[in-house]
Amino acid sequence: MQICQIKYTNLMQKSPLQIARQSYQPKMPVALQGAVRLVEGEKTQSVADQEEIKKLFPNTYGLPLITFEPTTGKNTCAEPFNVGVILSGGQAPGGHNVICGLFDGLKALNPENKLYGFLGGPSGLIDGKYQELTKDIIDEYRNTGGFDIIGSGRTKLEETWQFDNGIEICKQLGIKAVVIIGGDDSNTNACVLAEYYLQKQCGIQVIGCPKTIDGDLKNEMIETSFGFDTACKTYAELIGNIQRDANSAKKYWHFIRLMGRSASHIALECALQSQPNICLISEEVEAKKMTLNDIVEDIVKVIVARANAGLNFGTVLIPEGLIEFIPAMRVLIQELNDMLANNEEFTQLDGDDAKREYVKSMLTPASCELYRSLPKGIARQLTLDRDPHGNVMVSQIETEKLLIEMVQKRLAVLKANGEYKGKFSALNHFFGYEGRCAMPSNFDADYCYSIGVNATHLIAAGKTGYMSLVRNLTRPAAEWLAGGVPITMMMNMERRNGKMKPVIQKALVELDGAPFKYLEAHRAEWASPHTNYIYPGPIQYYGPTEVCDQPTRTLLLERGK
Ligand code: FBP
């Protein structure tokens, strides 16, 4: 196996804020500020499908929870060791700080320890593309957004040959542990890899870190994934700016789709921060078995009521995964997923019309009817390639435009009937990529750095199949708790690419949870013809703690704050 080190060149020019942030020292839990003592807790079990998960993960199932407690002295490792790190999936603010924390943690254990970055995501491990991350490189990336230090990718680690390549490359580089920084799918990969390496007794540990702006990698132990805080604050700032513009010009309805894939956590958090006129929540749409027409009807009611009060403007937040939560659409998408999985015949068809005809011939009558009723553009977007994990790429489906079109049609009918006298002029927006690489908020900078340092303690303790765990996050950073949670604890069986697979259970918005309840209790007031907008303003890095260090409203409400 030919491995290849790619040399880093620094061509970056920096803004004054970037220069100032380079010397920001992330705040850390007391437990990680000095030497730690490992305390083993309860044995764990998976969230669901215990028997199947146990069978598939005989070596990593049921491991105990781990807590690191502060102790006296110094943690050192007499024998130096090397670690490889992978950034996996979509960018999320703070990824660089996880790597910086890993680097500093490793050097504190033994200055001879080395950190290698695998380039371009999991494929870097398989293809042997890496770079040693030295102090000069690390210092360039402290407290910065982005994943450009080593790049990211969505290659799924699932084949034995990939795992075996990984072993060979790690052996060549003397790597004792691989750290995978990723979302639910990437941490599922981490768990599969950890299990395989234990079965093979190759001595390579695998540790996961909870990343994703989507906020759906959370559970009993993981309070939030990193990046959610910064991304939401960035979008909320933009929404606030738009609301102020809307309230000044008083002539546009803004339909704003927000990233987040399936779960509506981002839309909900942005609504809590900015108080829009309407915020759709996919999980509620599903629970109430709403159709597209029901959703349109709800939006139209608000538009008409505001128009009656002379207000022909407003904001609508739309979670990007909405379409998948409309029950009939979900059936259609599931049929499309199964049909598209490894379908050479479909990929080889020439032109949109041929593809459309083929799709229609493969669907059940009800789904075919729905597919035909959609605007052609949206129908085509539904058949675009899935990501390597079998997910529909919802970021490419323009639901906001679909809704505008449907609302426009409905208002035209009402106008013709004399039931609507307003003026509807709508603008569409999609906020996603704008927030994924933002400079991490203090919360994310501190959280991520702690996750990285904490991972080095898990590695030094010989642990594998664990996710680096930092919690108690609504308290000041010094009071955060550190430790590890077995990844198998978060798993269940789900249908992917037409087959049942073990995967980390996604956390969707809970309709009986405090964040949604808050929205539910206030949305009529926010929709009403009064101005209830909040303009959150940009993320602040320097200043009073209540301005600079606050976690998300979601986290505060979930913790009863
Ligand atoms: P992860 O789940 O990998 O963190 O990615 C999150 C996300 O930003 C989603 O919100 C979005 O749907 C998707 O990535 C977009 O993917 P891509 O970067 O491939 O366009």
Molecular structure report:
The protein has 561 residues and is α/β, with parallel strands linked by helices. It has 2 domains: 41-227 and 440-496, Rossmann fold, CATH 3.40.50; 229-437 and 511-558, Rossmann fold (3-Layer(aba) Sandwich), CATH 3.40.50. The chain contains 24 helices and 17 strands. Strand 4, helix 4 and strand 5 form a beta-alpha-beta unit. Helix 4 runs antiparallel to helix 6, helix 12 (292-308) packs across helix 19 (399-416) and helix 14 (327-340) crosses helix 17 (365-373). It starts with a strand and ends with a helix. The relative contact order is 0.17. The model has no long low-confidence stretch (mean pLDDT 94). The protein binds 1,6-di-O-phosphono-beta-D-fructofuranose (FBP). 1,6-di-O-phosphono-beta-D-fructofuranose (FBP) binds at residues 89-90, 92, 183, 212-214, 259-261, 320, 394-395, 436.
What's this, in brief?
It is built from 24 helices and 17 strands.
Q: How does the overall form come out from the CA principal axes?
A: globular
* CATH first level of the largest domain: Alpha Beta
Under CATH, the homologous superfamily of the largest domain reads: Phosphofructokinase domain
- Summing up helix and strand content along with how strands pair, one would put the structural category as alpha/beta
CATH architecture descriptor text of the largest domain: 3-Layer(aba) Sandwich
Number of domains: 2
Report the total helices. 24
Cα-atom radius of gyration: 24 Å
Ligands and ions found = 1,6-di-O-phosphono-beta-D-fructofuranose
Helix fraction, binned, reads 40-55%
**Could you list the spans in which at least 5 consecutive residues all have pLDDT below 50?**
none
The average pLDDT value, as a whole number, equals 94
The end-to-end span amounts to 54 Å
Largest sheet: 11 strands, mixed
Strand content: 15-25%
Count of individual beta strands = 17
CATH topology of the largest domain: Rossmann fold
